[in-house]
Specification:
Shape: globular
Radius of gyration: 22 Å
Largest sheet: 2 strands, antiparallel
Order of helices and strands: HHEHHHHHEHHHHHHHHHHHHHH
Structural class: mainly alpha
Strand content: under 5%
Number of helices: 21
Amino acid sequence: MGYPRKLTRRFRAFDNFAISFTIINIISGIFSSFGFGMNAGGPRVLVFGWIGVSVMVLFVGAAMGEIASAYPTSGALYFSAGKLAKRHQGAWSWYTGWLNFVGQVGGTAATNFAAATFIQAFLAMQWPDYRPMPQETVAITAAILLLQALANAYTVQLVAVVNRISVWWLLVGLVVIVGALTVIPDHHQPPSFALHFVNNTGFTHAVYGGMLGLLVTSWTFTGFDGSFHMSEETVKATVNAPRGIMRAITYSALTGLILMLALVYAIRDYGHAAKADAPPVQILIDALGQGTAKFLLLIVIGAMLFCGLANMTSNTRQIFAFSRDGAMPGSRWWHSVSARTRTPVKAVWLAAACPLVLVLPGWWSHTAFTAVVSVNVVGLFLAYAVPIFLRLRLDDFQAGPWNLGRYGKPVAAIAVAWILISNVLFMLPQASPITPASFNYAPIALGVVLLIATVWWFATARRRFQGPVSYGRPDEVAAMDLI
């Protein structure tokens, strides 16, 4: 790919799969967004929407996997966008890289903020006199970011081990939660309950409310580009990176459906749970009692912490690669690698500091925090769409060993179409009446990011950034390898 090797290849096939599986994190994703789905479509959309959206995400993953096999680098999306573009390689690469960067930073911030919120919910259950405050949520989030940064800065080997543990935490945790919801309650909803439809969004059109409910699954299925970003640290990356993407999506789809069904059929008082501050936690309390619910909540919190760690790892590699090509302020700092740990330590601390900046507005306004991190999913999926769209335009795409053959273009076309549809949903109003607290700030946040990137591009970047750079011929690059 034209770069000297600085990062250690210690990620096996399972490790590469583990990072995307951990970032998708069905326990974290479902518990964070289940309440929204209860009011936007109800069980019918939660169950059947999960199945339908999972299939569409598989198309996105397959199209991305084919590109990952052809361009297995830490730069991932922005690198492949620059290589696949027929013209204006620098601009395509620039916008993809910044959308990916902002989306990943928002993802790390949102995941750890959610973990801090659930930690406070646990504390309130344990000590009823405890009253969660926004300032304490921000402080807990900052502490989580610090611990995750220390783990990422230590060694690649440690990150790989933690990600292996996270997979088993998710799978065992899933079995425990589903088992408890299946065995302990003396009452479950009838099979037909999966067809129950609810529209509490405030909008009169049921179809619109149901379409919004599809976002529950879309919110969960983000971050599987983590396998792509870890390519330079993965053995046989041309095969293991795309396989990691596809396995992470497939296993998450299957296990997520099981968890979704368990939660849906365990609901007792639908109206009471739907109005709760944390609906899935209320479902656990109603079905299992407070003691068991607290234990299961610890599993959920652990899953969220693993998810945040994997998010930061992926973000670090994107920063490292983007800086290697001179696309970030202070690039020479962020792409340096520690001689002792063989990790981009400075990039790790930047990947921890940026989410903290996004979280700080939550100190005085949850709405302000929501406005900042709302670009997370939109930014990530737009970054996914660009290289897939550019590959769709090519007639001479040089596929890697893992490829879709003659189905490559049809799969890419379906992937791009789904990303456009889902992104429109992400930017539409999600509750009525529309107030400053309920307003969907995603379009504004996305507009601000694109405006800054555009001004920066035309002011200075277009003269110094031409897309992914090459350090020389393969033999010259090999001579530069530090490992």
